[in-house]
Amino acid sequence: MSDQEIEDFDVDNMSDTSRMIPGLPPYNMDDQLLPMESRSRWSCWIWTLFVSGANLLAFLVNFIVLAIIFAIVLTPTIVVVYFGFKCHSRVLHSDASYCKTLLDDNSSSALIILGFVMMSPLIVLAMALYCGLARRLRLFMLFQPYTRALYKGVRWRWYDEGGLCSCLREWNSHVKAWV
């Protein structure tokens, strides 16, 4: 092909619609991608502290829920390993009556091994429970972007979704479908 044919080929294949458009523009004026108004310096600092505090509080809520779920699910493993270590003669060697009558070194070792073998599936179960609960309660929607501190008029992330837990969206919806 000559250079002229290559230029004609390139020009013919290029059009305005061939550009990649990420999606249709929003129809609501509040959601337009217009430049937002910046906050003043002091207002920006105050809002940054406020958003940081809100994100720290969201982290603490997530961590507390995670710790409670893991403590409940891993309780059998903790108990089995505790009694295994407590009654073993080379570790703690307790003088409790159940250690002398029921558990010797071999059974204490078996308890320790059983506890650590049981731990892996229980950790997976605890993580699955936490992820399901965090999704249902929308715990990750508590985290706020720092654009709230920089620009005026940025909405809370969970506000449009029907509030936390999406309770308002479920109550306001009239159409329900089974899938």
Walkthrough of the structure:
With 179 residues, this protein is an all-alpha fold. It has a domain at 36-155. It has 7 helices and no strands. The chain has helices at residues 3-13, 41-73, 75-87, 97-101, 105-137, 147-150, 167-172. The mean pLDDT is 77.
In short:
By secondary structure, this protein is mainly α.
Give the overall average pLDDT: 77
Largest sheet: none
Count of helical regions? 7
Helix content bin:
55-70%
Dominant shape: elongated
- Low-confidence stretches are none
The sequence of SSEs as H and E is HHHHHHH
Q: Roughly how many Å apart are the termini?
A: 56 Å
Structural class: mainly alpha
Number of E strands = 0
Q: What Rg, in angstroms, do the CA atoms define? A: 30 Å
- Strand percentage lies at under 5%
Main location: membrane
Transmembrane segments: 44-74, 110-133
Subcellular location: Membrane
Organism: Leptobrachium leishanense (Leishan spiny toad)
List the helices and strands and how they pair.
Elements: H1 3-13, H2 41-73, H3 75-87, H4 97-101, H5 105-137, H6 147-150, H7 167-172
Keywords:
179 residues, mainly alpha, 7 helices, elongated
